[in-house]
Amino acid sequence: MKPARRIIVLMHETDDEQILQRYVITLLAEHWREDGHEVVFLFGTSRFVPGDVVVVHVDLSVVPDEYLLFAARYPASVNGRVRDIRKSTFSEGLLKQNDRWSGGVIVKTNLNYAGQPERERLRESASPGRRAMGRRWRSSSRPGVDHRFETPNGYLLYDRLADVPPAFFDDSGLVVQKYFAEIDQGMYCVRIMNFLGDRVSCMRLKGRHPIVNGPSTEIAEAVEPHPDIIAAQRRLHFDFGKFDYVMAEGRAVLLDINKTVGCATNLLDNQEMRRVRQHRAAALYEFFR
Q1: Cα gap 242→193, rounded to integer Å
Q2: Helices 128-138 & 116-124, crossing angle to 10 degrees?
């Protein structure tokens, strides 16, 4: 029998046990415990608990340096080199006001998932400095420009670049991007590549809403991940996460990257999905080496 190890999952200081049900990491932790390992969730960096590996699971677009420095104290880390997942750091097809583009356009928040994690955590942080960061973010919109979308389903779609309000281009909280659509039999598609280490699975989600995600999915089918997206995982130093992409213009176009994968409840209660998660969870044991 392999010796039991201690796995540390490092969360943001404002998180607590109740928030864990939102995340896939909780389901993976169930498999680690079933295999005889101890899993400890740490909330913030005020207390160091020795462990064999740490998973950095700070749900912010930019991970504060203190968390990455804290993670570096462990023998091995998962996502210890992933600091910034704002869309401006990786997105393809970003547009400026005077660019030449004749296709559709989407306006998103630069922050991940419509900035919801920042609204929840930076506003509630006990640190005065972090509260100020939250205020600066919330007050960054210009008069008449409300870009504080509740979820990505609220992102704005335009038929032409000329239709985008000029103020959006001047707002650092937003990105204006080419809208890449993958359509199959009248349904919009997005491909979701989940991974831990070198264990990768991919689903193609289909829905009738132009922005396809877990809640708007009507059909989910397993597909092979595209080699270019696997290469992007390595290039961006991701050990664990989820990459969203579409096949458009004859190539794989990366749309979104996420290091704190959420639970889409309509896709979880499935024996095959549980089997895939169990297989993926075991990839963590490679980090013990």
Answers
A1: 5
A2: 140
Q: Residue 218 and residue 185: Cα distance in Å, rounded? A: 13
Instruction: Tell me if 80 sits within 8 A of 68, measured CB to CB.
Output: yes
CB 182, CB 192: distance < 8 Å:
no
Amino acid, res. 116: Q
User: Torsion angle, CA of 261/267/271/272, rounded to 10 degrees?
Assistant: -70
- Give every CB contact of residue 81 below 8 A, 6+ residues apart in sequence: 68, 237
Using one digit for the tens of pLDDT, what is the confidence trace for 217-253? Answer: 999 999 999 999 999 999 999 999 999 999 998 999 9
The set of residues, in sequence order, having a beta carbon less than 8 Å from that of 177 and lying 6+ positions away, is: 87, 91, 92, 93, 94, 95, 105, 106, 107, 108
Q: For the CA atoms of 21, 261, 41, 59, what is the dihedral angle to 10 degrees? A: -110
